[in-house]
Every structure is written in structure tokens, then in C-alpha cells.
User: What shape does this take?
Amino acid sequence: MPKRLKLNDISKADDRQLTGLDINEIIPLPPPYDQSNKPGFKKLTEDQKERLVSNLDGFVGLALPRPKKAEEEKKYIGQFVAGLKKLLSKENNWTFLQPLLLSLDYCERCQTCNENCHIYLASGKNDLYRPTYRSEIFRRLVNKYKKSGGRWLSTLDGNDIELNWSTVSRLYELAYRCNLCRRCAQACPMSVDNALITREIRKLFSQELGWAPKELHENGTVLQLNVGSPTGLRPNVVKDNMAFLEEEFSEATGRTIKTPWDKEGAEVLIIHSAGDILSFPESVIAFGILCDAAGIDWTLASEIPGYDGVNYGLFYDDIQLARIATRHAQIAKKLKVKKIVIGECGHEHKALMTVADRLLTGDLNIPRESAMTFLENIVFSGKIKFDPSKNDFPVTLHDPCNIVRNLGIVEPQRHILRYLCPQFREMTPHGVDNYCCGGGGGLSVMNNVNFTDWKVNISGRMKFKQVLEAFADQPGPEIKKYVCAPCLNCKLQFRDIFEHYGAREKSGIIVGGLAELIVNAMVDIKKPFIAFND
Amino acid sequence: MELAGNMYEVDEHGFLQETAKWNEEIARAYAVKEGVNELTADHWTAINYLRNYYLQNGICPMIRRLIKDTGFTLKKLYDLFPNGPAHSACKWAGVPKPTGCV
Assistant: This one.
């Protein structure tokens, strides 16, 4: 299948797959994973190819049903153009119009961004995954439809991208082959933000055509606003689950662990990513232990959606983004807390600490602090005694893009790890130059059809390579190793990657957050808090 | 997808979409597809626990709860259900996999 593509291949009307990935052409992994070429990628079934739009790269994340009539296709094309015009108007896109226009106007086509994209590199440099491929196609459509005379002019200078059903449907799926990590934006000499362009494309599809991944919309933001969390956790169930965990962990640690719920006037409202309660309970319990040990006046909120800090709207839709961010702040205001601490969730940081800035004004402008500095203050407060030798195993740090590159919160977590983990080592590159885990931009929770396969093989590839290289001094499974990833979406992506490759069995690698690693070093907790053999 | 002689709506991973239509025959049919030809009492303990928890709480129980309340270790659960509690047991019990960040 071709790796070199032309821009107008996107509109090839035969509706067949544009390109594909060969497991032997993507970048190799270090041993023993260089031998993991069987069975290759999970192929689409004939039935799936018939029912679903699958005209991009052999992977399907969105499960768009193939339209039955030509009128349907025409309708969508019309909606796309209408959406395009709205995206470029101040009234409709007051949120992101300026950076979008700057990114559309100032690209010099130098292609520097591509060399910095973990997806493009991992794929063996398949043109489809160049940040510029998607952006330039969109740019030409913008120029065609926004400028008067644009449609006519575009055919003259050979820049024409035909807008047909194939273009629209491929662009939709292609918008979900980007982790919105902004490594391209950071590398760009002009600060063109291809991630922003991608995200605005997603917004166009969602707000105008009503197209969005079920995991992000129906079972994501909509479910969260209805019942409290995309996990489906309702307030009574979350409190019940926390009570269960408190009992379990109180027994295991010999401490009384109790979560204060809805405490008015508390200093701190912690908003976790609720999925941690179900999948990484040590994390939320660890926060409770640390707050109590450091004498912090804290609380959780049980009002919908105050116990779940995720905001998938950030990835695809301004309306949902605004609704959820506002609700979070309103709940904090109602509880009269002094500040909100954002738990170990990357995009929660970005949503609540910057993007929602213009929404959270007046008395909704409650101070928000990252868990990174919050935990750093606790660790170095002198209030808790630590014994770093309890963490004497290889540890490396994954930098969640939304916390580190996007917000510049780089040092606090390293300050903690250098103190509490004698065998802490950095990945290469790290900090703001890190590679995305491959689950960013909402992709972490998208697992429809064979999309997981794309994530663990392609978007997560550079990261997996980095992890293995960071532990290359002691690669065997008998040495247990910890990837510290202070973001739930990242942890889930790591979990999927490690499961796919058998990394726990072959290399002894597990993933977890920061808070539990801190608790594991507490002198007062006798038994190890982190379990390597679950 | 056909299960136990009838057609049912399933998602792309074969999970039943309308949980109310579940019956024990469906559980058996799913099990056979994964190479388990007979469901023992232990299987039903886990399946019924999952189903009841889901119907009561709107989500699947966390693994720790499943382990504690059934008395089965994780290893035992993987012995009973080839693809594990999340992928196999939930499917056979006709309850959806959890959504969101889990």
C-alpha cells in the first residue's frame, strides 16, 4: 500500500482505502519486541467493510455507517461547507478563531512539524500521518470556500481539493489520527498549531454534522452531564465504591482512611478522573492518605459531575467543553472551597487551568492548582517521613502532554521522584520534548472496531520504544519496573500497550501514577503500597 | 449476531446492546464461542453477580469487588473466563463494557 500520497488523494471517489500499514515497515522496537510481528494488525472483516466507512488506512475508529443514498452524501457535504463557514466566523467561533486563522495563514510548508510527530515517525513516514497532510487539505478547502472567487481560483492554480463524500468522510476519520499533543506546534518556527487545526476540524463535524465518536459524545460528555461521569458512575455508586475501597485499604495499611464528601468551606476540593476509582484505586486512596498525613483540609464533591474531572469536550466540541467546565467551577463555588486541585489527569489540567479561562470569570474564577505542585508541597513540607529505599526499583517518568508541554509544569514531579526513587531515570527525550503516549486527544478511550490496534502499534510506538530504552540497563522480567504516568488517559494507553506486547511478563514493567509512588515510600505504611504482581 | 438461535444487536466487539434481552442461553452461546462448552456453578456465580450489580448500579463492578464478593481470585476468574472478567465475563453476562476512562 502506498506511503507517498498526493493531497488530492483524499477525494479519490472510489471510496477504497487510501493507504495501509505494513507491520514490517513501521519503525522497529528493541528486542524481544522486534520479534512480535505476528499476527500483524487486526484486519477489518468483510462485513465491517460493507457496513462501515473504511476508506482511510485499514483502521476504523469512528464506525461511521456507509450512507445508503446519494442524497445523504450530498446533505453531509452541504453541512460540511456550512460548518466550514461558521468555523471561520467570529460569532460562531469566538473561542478559537484567531489561533485557527493564524495557523491557517502562516504555514511556510517547511515540513519541520512532521519530523517531530510521533505518529508520522512511527508509521515509517507514511504521508497520511503528516500533520501537514491533514492541515493543508483543510487549508485549501478553507481557501476554496471562504474567499469569494475561491472556488474558481482554486481550480486555476492546481490547488484544488474536490469536496465530495470521500473527502468529507476521510477527513473525519483522519481528524482522529492525531493526539492533539502539540509537539508539532512546539517545533514549528512559525508556531502553527496543527493540533488546533485538527481539533477544529473535529468541532466542525460535531457541532454541524453531529458526528463524533460515541466514546467522546454519547457515552462521554453527554453521559457525564446526565449521570456524573463517562464511566457511568452515579453519585451514590461513587460514594459506595469509595467506601468499599476505604475499608479495603484501611485494613491493608492499618490506617483509618475516610473520604470527606461535600465539606463546605474546605481548603481544597480535589477533582480526580473518576475512572481511577475503578481502574487505579491506589491513586485516589493515596491522595486521601497524603492529605490526612499532611493535615490538609480537603474534600471531594458528590454532585454531578463534581467527582469526575474529565472534560472530553476539550477534544471535539466547544459547547460540551463549556458546559462541563462551568459545572465543575459552579460545584466548587457552591462548596465555598478555597481552591480546586486537579488530579492526575492531563486534559483536566488543560481544560480547567487555561482553556476555560474565559468562561470562569467573576466568582467562578476559583483558584486551580495542579496535583503536581500540590503533591510536591506535601512531600517537602516535612510533615511526612519518607524512606526512599522502599522505592528502590527502576522508575521512569512519562510526561503527560497536557501537563508538561502544554502548561509548562515540568519540575515538581521530577523533584519528587529524584528524592523518593533512588533508581529514577529520565526517558529520552523528556520534559516538554516528550513524545505523547499515543492516547492523547481522547484516543485513549476510543476502542471501537480495530482502533486499539492502531493505538498500540502506531500512536503508542515511539513511547513504548522510549520506555524500553529507559529500562535497557535491566531489561529482564525479574526486575520489576515502574512507569510513573500522572495522567489516567496515559495510564490506560500504557495498559493497552503493555497488554498487547506482554510487557509485564517479558520485561516486568507496570504503569501507575505519582501519588501511590509517594505513599509507597511512607515510613508509616509498613506493607508495600504498590503491587507488582497483580 | 446470532446467539442461541436468535439474532441480537451487538457492538463491534460482540457485546449485547440490549441487556434486557439476555437469557442464560445467550451466556452459554457466548461461552461456546470462546471454547467453554459447559458453564459450572462458579461461572453462574460470577455471571449473576455481574449482572445483578450492573442492573442495580448502572455500571460493572470494579475488579476488586468482583474478587471480594464472589471469593474468586483473579487467577480463578481467568480460569473460568478465557479473556478475563472484563472481556469475557461481562460479555457472557450480557452487560456492556464500561465506557470512559476505565
